[in-house]
Write a structure and sequence with these properties.
2 domains; 8-stranded mixed β-sheet; 11 helices; disordered N terminus
Length: 319
């Protein structure tokens, strides 16, 4: 039988308390580590944080401002902006603008943090492959997980298309040294944002010179809260069904459509049909089916090609 020394009891309690404290600290630190991992994965999608390579001597800068729009009930929506290298040091120069629409779920920051559009622009400019462009990334919904399709919905204060075309574009032209006409604007996006770019672009011929859809779609998704199962509204918001009636205007404004889809993307067939419709309508376009799915790796890997396509089909900047 073991006899316990009464004097040892405080030491045992201290040791026990220390073990509990150590366990609690481990849980707290481990929990924080897990939260940091989840946060980093959400922001960067498993890729390393973006950074310019060593040979890039001049970098662009990021800003955020807010746009208030009656089309969405007076909401103040954040708009992220990437100003190209040299913007501040060349006050007499004006720039074309590339508007980028996020998908759902999503936020505009993914274009800079995951797709690395800012880094890619810096690199291409360092190689003198493109002309400098202002990148504009508005937040086009009421929440990260809210699906608004970048469309004018049936609900009250659901004019997301009007918000973009009228309020965001006007605010950007007023705030920055843009070339304020459609011939010097690009509208593109990924997934739902790619659909939004095509849909908005066809509704407003001449507002944008280049339309880009990255793994988007050309047929409106029959979402009751947005389109109310209304056949006419679904047709109006389906680029595949609108292209025939818009082709003459698109050609008159020298517009170009650039889009792609993945080999395993469920939207592949829909994109192939849209390419056929563009061909029949004699609207200039380039379509590619690329290895991959509906995924960040594909969008990230095609960022340079997206900027190259935009730059090559825009008139040169001024100044």
């Amino acid at each position: 039988m073991t006899v316990l020394d009464p004097a040892s009891r405080p030491l045992r309690r201290l040791a026990t308390g220390g073990a509990v404290l150590a366990t609690a600290l481990f849980v707290i630190v481990g929990g924080r580590g897990l939260m940091q991992y989840v946060y980093n994965f959400w922001v960067y999608r498993g890729f390393p944080p973006p950074s310019d390579p060593a040979f890039v001597r001049r970098q662009g800068t990021t800003e955020r401002f807010y746009v208030s729009s009656a089309a969405i009930g007076g909401r103040h929506q954040p708009v992220d902006v990437y100003l190209p290298p040299g913007y501040a040091s060349h006050p007499g120069r004006r720039y074309p603008v590339f508007y980028l629409l996020h998908g759902s779920p999503g936020r505009p920051g993914a274009f800079l943090q995951t797709v690395r559009m800012g880094v890619v622009e810096d690199v291409l400019l360092a190689h003198r492959k493109i002309q400098p462009m202002i990148l504009v990334m508005p937040f086009g919904s009421t929440g990260t997980f809210t699906d608004d399709e970048w469309a004018n919905g049936i609900g009250r204060n659901a004019g997301w298309e009007r918000f973009l075309v009228h309020d965001v574009v006007r605010a950007v032209d007023a705030r920055y040294r843009t070339i304020p006409n459609g011939a010097h604007r690009v509208l593109g996006g990924l997934s739902e944002g790619g659909y939004g770019a095509l849909n908005i672009g066809l509704h407003h011929p001449g507002a944008f010179r280049v339309l880009e859809s990255w793994s988007g779609y050309a047929q409106a998704d029959d979402i009751a809260s947005i389109f109310g199962h209304r056949a006419g509204l679904l047709r109006w918001n389906s680029p595949a069904e609108q292209i025939g009636g818009r082709a003459r205007q698109l050609r008159a404004h020298h517009e170009f459509v650039w889009f792609y889809t993945g080999t395993t993307d469920q939207l592949r067939t829909q994109n192939e049909r849209f390419a056929t419709a563009l061909r029949r309508a004699h609207v200039p376009f380039r379509f590619a089916t690329l290895r991959g799915g509906h995924e960040w790796a594909l969008w990230r890997g095609q960022a340079a090609n997206a900027l190259l396509a935009a730059s090559r089909h825009l008139p040169a900047g001024l100044g």
